Description:
alpha+beta, five-stranded mixed beta sheet, 14 helices
Amino acid sequence: MSKDITSRSEDYSQWYIDLVRKAGLADYSAVKGCMVIKPYGFAIWENMRDTLDRMFKETGHVNAYFPLFIPKSFLSKEAAHVEGFAKECAVVTHYRLKNAEDGSGVVVDPDARLEEELIVRPTSETIIWNTYRDWIQSYRDLPLLINQWANVVRWEMRTRLFLRTAEFLWQEGHTAHATREEAIEETRKMLDVYATFAEEWMALPVVKGVKTTNERFAGAEDTYCIEALMQDGKALQAGTSHFLGQNFAKAFDVQFSSKEGTLEYVWATSWGVSTRLMGALVMAHSDDEGLIIPPKIAPHQVVIIPIPKPLAELDEAINNVAKELRARGIRVKIDTDDQNRPGYKFAEYEKLGIPVRLAVGARDLAAGTIEVARRDTREKQSVALDGIGDHVANLLDEIQRNLFERARTFRDERITRVDTWDEFVKTLDEKGGFISAHWDGTGETEDLIKDETKATIRCIPLNNPQEDGLCVRTGKPSSQRVLFARAY
RNA sequence: CGGGGUGUAGCGCAGCCCGGUUAGCGCAUCUGCUUUGGGAGCAGAGGGUCGCAGGUUCGAAUCCUGCCACCCCGACCA
């Protein structure tokens, strides 16, 4: 048991906070609701970001950057959009401070009031579509496939490190298309990119689906999502991809001349994932000893610890192993620090979640072996130094695979088909996870269930089998099951 | 905004009810020595506007008043 991390069974939520802080991912800041992302946490985010960025570029997108500030009037141009975000916007009203007359510091200069207030972007659809109006005149300008890496601000009343903070980092793709079909195809394509990233890099199994009207993005016609399950049985929305129809094109008057010579409104999509994925990563894989990071996104995939009896051969052996691993593209850290004892380091690197730990001492040298410990199962074994590069490379693949399989088994065991309301409530309280149940399709029933149980419809899975049934709450006819869960 | 709680060293806390030497303890930090295969031991050292302001008192971390901040629960949250 780790010395400074609360166990999951004792207090899951405290375990999460302890882990995030003690493993050096993030910390609270002087600003309420805002966090400091620390170097180790940022290194993981950089790996996620770089991978996603490459995937975006491989699917034809380019990066750009739009302003942090949005004129207040822009936000209100799309009715549903402003309705959805108005309550959590930070607003800039002045542009200057001055010395207080009583010498107590600086105060806002009342003479420096802005003509029009600026909103700190909660998302960039409005400023971007206002810009697209100037960029799009012809079908030849389409499609426009742009992504932005940025920070956004949503003034939430209650925050949690990574999962919900006032400011967070994300990417937002904003694309413009000539036809409805093409825009929908783009929406689905990016959902697939997210799902692939989640499963293959983060080892995070996800359900792809569509949101109900209640849960839809403010201003979208359809919101697609990937939903993941955390170890406490709560769901986490890991990414969304929106088909925006012509809503923003109409709000910002973005039209183009078609091949046929007619004037048409542009079709739009937007899609995003955020630093919230860091929270998903922590809660999906880690244990009471600390983080467990999938090899593909781990800042260090292997750490080598010399067991420090002063010995020149030891340095040589370690450097040779590191060289062999690095030649295979493996990210290796060598801990030559002689202040801390091996036992301390073992515990420390387990807390940091480094997938593979190698330990070498005089004993190993004599035997021509090295101690290999894998983080996911915490198993240790002695392996011949000869051929260690292949062994570790295979082990990293095996760990990546195992983490995914483990999470998928956990998730699949927690998708429960339920047909009665009693069962629904009981399953939610005792087992958690996703509940697959019939629903009459109305927002009223969805709200009712939410009020009574705090469970929401996470999504209607894609390719959902059609099946006649009765709504689990109202008994009205239903044509398919949907996934319910309590969520973050 | 409603209910509850907490502010004392970098972190975690005790002391407060019942006012009284130089405000303690653990971890961390620094120095030295011995250690090093699962979170080392000993010795020494440094570090404090006791959240802020006022009041009572010979004397306030402690009692009183006001204020501020943060945390938890709820409301809120694609």
